[in-house]
Amino acid sequence: MTDYDRLSALDASFLHLESRATPMHVGSLAIFEGELFFDGSGRFRLAAVRDLVTSRLHHIPRFRRRLKTVPMEQGRPIWVDDDRFDISYHVRLTALPGPGNWNQLRALTARIQMHELDRSRPLWELWFVEGLEAGRVALVQKTHHALVDGVSGVDVATVLLDFDRNATTEVGPSWSAAPMPSSARLLADTMRERATEPAEFVRTARGLARTPQRAATRAGEVGRAVRSLVASSPLAPATSFNRPVGPRREFVGVKVDLADVRRVRSQVGGTVNDVVLAGVAGALRRRFVARNEPLPERVRVLCPVSVRDESETMQLGNRVSAMFVDLPIEEPDPDARLQTIGKLTRDLKDHEQALGASFLLGLTEYAAPTLLGLAARLVQRQPFVNFVVTNVPGPQVPLYCLGAKMIEAYPMVPLSHNLGLGIAILSYCGVLHIGLMADAVANPDLADLAADLTAAFAELGHADARDDAARGTNG
């Protein structure tokens, strides 16, 4: 039987979730030193950038592939070579009018990110931006969530970028598009696969039964994990951030020193991710107050968790599960919020909640594609989560493109039907780069939320100073 490069159920779900108002691509904004991107006459070296990217595409073959659907939705789509692949469509150049400041750049970034990717082509774009202040160059990236998750997205970046200033254009193997199957052949092969998958599932179960102790242990782990998913209140509180999402976008980036986060972790306890969540909780609390909105006792965030192992490095697609964390917004003391969050995440890890979510997501591999599409549309209107907060570790050494150093890099996550704010964090060279993507109509105060984030991180770990200030005020 033909071994098709078929989308997983989780990858396919992002196609079902997509609409004009909710494009399902992940993105980023990077800023580089600019000088080496220009030739002696001051023209941007676009051909050199395209040659560089092209020379490395053999490392990520799906970047030359597009989607082909199965007739009558009788199976998940497959990736096929794009016989009209054109690097000039995927690597583009645009410019800002002078003076090319930060506000102009983030407005341009939001406009680029609000448009869906063309499904008749490979699902990625790189937009280089010239005209920035101080001669710098920006790179706005879009890659469909069906193609990459956050961690594999970092892997892709390290292929397209360099770890030193010596840019190398590789001599990769020659490439020509492989012939794609006809629709009739694809339908027949898919129906044959669907007929054999249940048999494979039964054989796997029988194999587990031959090792009763291991099967019982695994079943106990999954049972505890699934129970942890439903142990707390199933519904998230209604907030002003959870309104129907429209097509317009707003983007803001925030920088936080990673050394400060680690200092707070050592003083107050928890993990780096706990400190990040505490900073987010503090900022949201400030925004609820500024909006004259009653403080909810908690808000629930979905934190994607990578379930990749080292053998899966550079494999595209989604290998993620999730943890659901209730942030104690009502708690006024920032360090107490951090301690509460640390306890919550430890409990979730002890109960292996991410394993439970991964197990449930894995069951969708056996769902009929039509049912999967219906389920994805229902989940899009979910009342269970207020925000997505994803924290991806990036390289702590500089990266370069054409020898130009990458100075900043802000990630972005897509919005869905009633999730009007997405918060993505990437650590790079000792700095947490926080990308805030929001529905522009529902969240006109996104720049204020960025300022709230900066203030919320600054107040963590300063309990002694706050006590001294309180004593001085009261005295």
Task: Please state the structural category.
Answer: alpha+beta
* CATH homologous superfamily heading of the largest domain: Nonribosomal peptide synthetase, condensation domain
Major sheet details: 6 strands, mixed
Unreliable runs: 149-154, 199-230, 306-321, 350-379, 465-475
Radius of gyration, in angstroms, nearest whole number: 23 Å
N-to-C SSE string, H for helix and E for strand: HEHEEHEHEEHHHEHHEEHHHEEEEEHH
Instruction: Give the fraction of residues assigned to helices.
Output: 25-40%
Gross CATH architecture of the largest domain: 2-Layer Sandwich
How far is the N terminus from the C terminus?
Answer: 81 Å
Give the overall shape: globular
Mean pLDDT: 79
What portion of residues belong to β-strands?
15-25%
Number of strands: 14
In order across it, which strands form the biggest sheet? 4-5-6-1-12-11
Level-1 CATH class name of the largest domain? Alpha Beta
Number of domains: 2
Tally of alpha and pi helices: 14
Describe the structure.
This protein has 475 residues and is of the alpha+beta class. It folds into 2 domains: 9-160, Chloramphenicol Acetyltransferase, CATH 3.30.559.10; 226-394 and 417-474, Nonribosomal peptide synthetase, condensation domain (Chloramphenicol Acetyltransferase), CATH 3.30.559.30. Helices cover 40% and strands 20% of the residues. It has 14 helices and 14 strands. It has a 6-stranded mixed beta sheet with strand order 4-5-6-1-12-11, with helices on both faces. A 6-stranded mixed beta sheet has the order 7-14-13-10-8-9, sandwiched between helices. Residues 149-154, 199-230, 306-321, 350-379 and 465-475 have low confidence and may be disordered.
